[in-house]
């Protein structure tokens, strides 16, 4: 399979996952002026979809190996899947089942698969940055030949840990790739007017961290930049920064209709769907429409199966509420 | 008097105060669209972006800037979205806001209201469900307010905005949509509890979301033969010791109920104080010392319920 | 067995563990010069800058990085210098370190020891004198340790370094120079209190700096006719309920003493628990709810003293 | 009096204050391997001296008016004096007396004179930055024609609030002058190796905040840069940044012998004492040595008087420990 096909397949799997999760969440969270549905949704908690941003996850993560580590954001399904997690166990987690990655304890906002180096989504904006920095520091101290990929949003670049983490990574010359997934919005607030100066790349450069800015909807561009940057990091060059500009197709959470956005802007962005872009390129490369459609169907089928398994999966035991917490003093009293 | 939600009651209080005092401003993320819980709805239209201020995602600076604003003559309302994010602004709240007046010998005052919604809500799991009122009650220099009803959210927010000292104002996320009658102009004083029903067998002291759960137990007759006196503390600092001690003098038994973790929760303060002052029998009901889980069955372990309150009351009567 | 200071005892414990386990590292500001209180003295020379890590002034990243280090196989010791600065790292401690294991369903562990010295010391005023142990005791996922003697600082630090979960390790700044006998190899288990003297009239439970003050009252015969049983709790989570309840079963009276603010301090937890479990009489002695002032006369208001302890004991006997 | 003379006089007053405070603090804090003295020192608490850094305080503050606001650091005596505070009330505060600015509640680390717009030293590194930003925001909202000067050290530029505050100031175009007093050390740690990239100016510029770097031991250079920057701010230009490179003559606190520093470096730095530099310039301008000596004597005399008043000043009442705290609920119980 050629590189672009592989990238496309991964993006399609993420899209299929996000679409299915979105439907399963309707009527879940009661917010954004909406009441919760009478019948509880299959996905109850807040669901931050990465629909439209798949090229960033795919283009970066195909340049990682299993032993590399990754920290993510509240919008973490794509990164998790791209790092090699099993969509069935992910869907089980979103459904709050015992067979989910976190045994139903975390849900979407804490999706993780430590076994493939995916150290977790995070409910706190920018909180993954110090954690990723420390993980990279550990790799260096322990002389392990791997790297860390640290994803965060454009909104995160205005929080203190962004400065603290990037400074630290450069001071200790750590093997870490910072990836700003810039969808130009922070919840309901356009990020531009909240961000001084030339933005994230300029901030990285002020810390002497080399940075590349790419069209984050062009998966080949993301892939190429990631290839270069990860190679430099693996060669001992210290931290690197990737600024990928993309767009969030959905509301902030799945039940947010996103009415605060200009419909013209949204319509224009939808035309630049990374899947449409990649499909066009595949066709140009001579891959047949049938072959591409087959990838799409395969991805959807995979997620259909995941949904079915998740819906049938068992709930956590009550007893498990008291597990995975302190050993010290456990069993003595809660 | 009119019917409105807990969120709308807060909007009304803030609107009235902002109309009366040009120095009152609100700042936080996403406020320009009325706040993610609608707790500022309508205000951006009326007061514009200079007074309902959209900020960068930077909780530390939001809180720290509010301290500076207060020192320079404004009366800021700070929105932290959920208390869990206020953890990103702890130095600013504790070392800067709470201590300022004392540490500088009264040279300055920090009249700010920091709103930081608490509680379990909509499967939001470990990082969006905390109730940390005990932390702030422990901290010299802070007023701590936990409204339970639309009327109280209106009245306590108005009183808080009139406080010359920093107020930690904790709305409960599960209460945003709760409707009730609100009489404009009725302020609720800080430090005065609300005796919700009289009883003789035990005193139940609670606040915030606990109030509705206790009243649900009452209205569904879950208490069976037991007649509890139920008190909504409303503010945790100052808290209404007189009202509580008066009640336990009558009932001889105190049950403190809160959604926060029981260990070192504010229930311990109320129970210990009552035991010291009156020698009454005490008991607490709070969350086990576990993070809030995502799945319903896990989340429920950390949640209050009428059944849990009744069971605790029965246990206290046997104690 | 040899005589050494509380600070030296910690150095010895850390040195032994670092020799045995290459994955143990320490990180924080100014560690390369042995730490500002000498609590890392000698270690930079032996283990070099890769394992005794000088960091930029960035508490949030220090603590967050330690979480990442722990997840990636190290066992970091985090130095926050004084607990007041740990307020700059609260999200990292609470939302990230404490909840990690639970929230990710046990996929990872965060075996870190976060040292954050507490207490009043050398006229350091409101922003360098706090004791916030109650906050951490309230927080699921954290172990809370408060050593009172050189031997315990050695033994509890070793046990903490062996914990697979995050430990909030609170040395008291006024104890750094205190000398005592330390037997290497003697670990002090987490969760076991130390009964320092047997008595029959009341049980005094205390920890950290409170231990020395209580013992001073005893040795100077300030208690006069009163015979207290004095217990050093040593760890606040888990805390040794059995030891405390056994003692109050005998004495019928409990006085909890701590330097932290009394309101919503950990004394409330101990007192409320004992009242619930045993019905004994309880009383607390802690700091008034004021920031620590600079001038000696102000600072003293927030300080424990033998006289205050004796007065509280007398009041409890009359209660 | 010509400008340089005025600047010199102010620096000399600060130096005299610092020297006197230093002596009064010997045997105070028991740290840095030293035991506390048997006889309690007149200044009991930690004392961070700005000796050697006087040119920054003087050069900036002579460009401020009384209604302008200022936030400071743990090393704040110079800023306080330069903003117009009374050295006697300052010394009383350091001595913990009731007649001090903070009624003995704060000491050196919280020295402040709100009546001249000096909003306080701060015991937390970088904590003044958000406060200053908010104060500037208030000035803008309240349409007051004044500005804020925000002092911090080189070490503070690695903490999150530095990013958050500077970003905020630029986003809202606030009237604020950020002053980095770069003495190249953070307690016992050289700041350079802990700081990624080109340092603080580069960070300010990445946020589009115009910055000037000056020799912070040349008070005329500081004055000239401050004059320009404050004028731009007053004209509505938004935030400005001053990077002043200087040197800390003393240990981190007054009882710290500073043995971790290279004696050669210290000796070289002492030759660049801003007072020596300014004195040389004054002589070149034709001011007589006698006239300069008179300024020195006058400054020392002023501080001698302050010491005498402070030593005789009354201690705070015990009752005052319970004042200047919450009104709500006060008088009910503590
Ligand atoms: C510290 C913190 N503040 C606020 C929030 C609430 N919040 C969740 S996502 C979000 C917007 C984040 O924007 P960005 O970083 O650009 O990520 P995106 O949602 O666009 O992927 C906000 C404000 C949070 N989770 N954490
Ligand atoms: C948040 C925080 N971390 C650590 C400290 C301890 N500390 C006090 S001053 C200082 C060094 C500050 O360096 P810099 O900002 O350059 O100021 P300088 O002392 O050189 O004037 C440190 C680490 C503190 N006060 N606050
Ligand atoms: Mg975004
Ligand atoms: Mg410095």
Question: Total strand count of chain B, please?
Answer: 14
Percent in helix of chain A: 40-55%
- The CATH architecture designation of the largest domain in chain B is 3-Layer(aba) Sandwich
Distance between the termini of chain A: 54 Å
What fraction of the residues of chain B are assigned to beta strands by DSSP? Answer: 15-25%
Low-confidence spans of chain B: none
Q: Helical proportion of chain B?
A: 25-40%
How far is the first residue's CA from the last residue's CA of chain B? 44 Å
The biggest chain-chain interface is:
A-C, 49 and 47 residues
Radius of gyration of chain A: 20 Å
Which structural category fits the helices and strands of chain B? alpha/beta
Provide a concise account of the structure shown.
The complex is a heterotetramer, with two copies of chain A (334 residues) and two copies of chain B (319 residues). Chain A is of the alpha/beta class. Chain A has eleven helices and seven strands.
